[in-house]
User: Fold PE-PGRS family protein from Mycolicibacterium anyangense.
Amino acid sequence: MAPGTSHSLPRVLTMTALWGAAAISGGLFLAATAAATPSQPSPGCVVTTHGSCTAGHSARTAETAMPTTTVAAARATTAFAVASNGPFLGLIGDGVDAAANCVGSACNGGRGGLLWGNGGNGANGGTGGDAGLFGNGGNGGNANTLGQAGGRGGNGGLLWGNGGDGGNGADGIPGSAGVNPSTPNGSFAYVGSSGTSSSGIGDQIGGAGGTGAPGGQYNFLFVTPIGGTGGGGGWAFSLSGNATGGNGGAGGAGAFGGPGGQGGTGGVASVGSTGTAISGDGGTGGTGGTGASGGQGGTGGVTWATTGVAGNGGTGGTGGTGAAGGDGGDGGAGGNGGRGGLFGGNGGQGGLGGNGANGGTGATGGQGGAGGTGGTSMYPTGTTGAGGTGGAGGTGGTGGNGGQGGKGGTGGRSFLSGTPGTSGGSGVAGTGGAGGQGGTGGTGGTSGSGSTGTAGQSGQSGHAASGRQGGTGGTGGSGGTGGAS
Assistant:
């Protein structure tokens, strides 16, 4: 052998074998497909939370890809193709299918050989592999996570081959039911200021108590979830005239699920000799935080006079509105179908969009605060105060809105010969959640003479959804009547 030629002959033989195999395989491919147009792949199914197909979606059947002779040629086992590892030297053979337990980019199907070979199928929302010059694109993977989009179908061979089907989108994430928060650790907000007191000759009038501070958070550290108690009404004393005590201040509203503050106590009224003493009424309880109870009404003021009239108990605070239900998640979009080959091949079917999830139910409204206790008279000839009316129950929480259905994937294109793929249907929108139950009304307060009040009424049921829109919460029940004086 002449010098310089010892390594060239094997290389020439190897390249000749590769190109010969490519030419033969291409000839087989064209001969088998000349009399038949590649058939259309079948649709798949939408993944649900139960792992089954949703209504109206059929399970994906085995792909009807290229004609039998074509597939036999494209998938033939040769010395140049190693199926388990993808195309030999990237030239001949099928792309690798993604594993069922794949994660991330590993869920994309492998590309088919540059000369010929089908693309591998995607999994778990991954894209299907593209074919080379001849071959079918791989199917996109169906989504396996709620709300995930389906994978795109692989493109058919540049010259000839069917596009792969797009994967189906998954259903959306269901909306969570509304949950009223537990009362966090913390303290009462500041008490309202006391009313100004008054005394002297002639008619005297005490000032009203201030409103308790609302619950809240101060300086990002100090949490006061419970509304502050209303300030007490100012007392009044008249040596020779009439005396009127100030009304108690209203309780502060609760925050972060804390109850409303209690109403302030009515101011005491007394006279020295003749004249009428009218004590102040108790303040109204504060409104509860989210789903929390309203504050109790304040106690009526005491009277010191033979013709005295004690103050009535304050009205209980309104219960807090229940927490809203969570919105349902949107369904995942279907993957687009892959395009067919330039000279022959059908476009892939678009994947089906996932259904939107239902919204969550609203939480129950908070209970109304109890009515305050009526004031007492220190003289048997005086009149005791009536018990306060119980507070109304809180409105139930609004139901969450249903999610939008995912958009179906677009069918793949076809060119000189073949049929375009059909676009996938869009998913159905989710239904809104029902509104929460209204809270129970508060119990009426006890009168100064000891008569008990009546129980509050139950709240109304929440309203049903209207399509995707969540239902409104039910109205809270009326508070009970306070005991008679």
The chain is about 5% helix and 5% strand. The radius of gyration is 39 Å. Residues 41-178+330-363+403-432 form one domain. The longest strand covers residues 198-200.
